[in-house]
Amino acid sequence: MQSELFASENLAKPSSAPGMTLQNAKSVKYTVNGEMLARQGAMVAFRGNLQFERKGQGIGGMLKRAVTGEGLALMSVRGQGEAWFAHQAGNCFIVDFEPGDALTINGRNVLCFDPTLSYEIRMVKGAGMTGGGLFNSLFTGTGKLAVVCDGNPIIIPVTAQAPVYVDTDAVVGWSAALETGLHRSQSVGSMIRGGSGEAVQLKLSGEGFVIVRPSEVTEAAAAH
């Protein structure tokens, strides 16, 4: 059978070592030898001897069911085998953490990660409920994190002299050392749309970078 469908770039790559690799721009392959963690519903295929378990109320009362206040639930994948992950054909990127690295990521952009990474659910300082009750996850440790983004991300440097203001629906993540707060501004666009005329952005200041997606459409809005 002949077809461009069977082009080499579309074929599943053989595993060379445990852990995650990019299958292509839209999906991540994870060769599991033990355990890994992923967002529920993100697995599109697997093979081998793998068990999937919803991350819920565990022994000792640790509730890590949700990465964010938006209710993104996690699952653990255990055993030996291969699994492929993707989310709404978003672009996938792998972040390799070294000792001392710390990154704050919006839960909607988390795809999967190594169990050697630590994550802590935090409300974004200064945002509060006015900013949509913005909850993000702080990732630290050593290992890899797969991030998914609508479109090609924009990486904007942040300096003490030049803070950056981002739409709370468009922000993907930022350097954990940055200071956060709310910034209010008059927006011609919001007035034209019939809003109050006041827009609220997340202000990031300090030294580091912010990752922004080229879309303000939330998943909830896109579903309607």
Uncertain residue segments: 57-71, 129-133, 220-224
Described by the principal axes of the CA atoms, the overall outline is globular
What oligomeric state is this?
Answer: single chain
Q: What's the gyration radius in Å?
A: 19 Å
String of helices and strands: EEEEEEEEEEEEEEHEEH
Strand content: over 45%
Give the overall pLDDT as a whole number. 82
Class by alpha and beta content:
mainly beta
Written account of the structure:
- The protein has 224 residues and is mainly β.
- 4% of the residues lie in helices and 51% in strands.
- The chain contains 2 helices and 16 strands.
- It has helices at residues 188-192, 219-222; strands spanning 19-24, 27-39, 43-54, 74-85, 91-97, 102-106, 110-113, 117-123, 135-141, 143-149, 154-158, 164-167, 171-175, 179-186, 198-205, 208-212.
- Strands 1, 2, 3, 4, 5, 7 and 10 form a 7-stranded antiparallel β-sheet that branches.
- β1 (19-24) and β2 form a beta hairpin.
- The longest helix has 5 residues, at 188-192.
- Residues 57-71, 129-133 and 220-224 have low confidence and may be disordered.
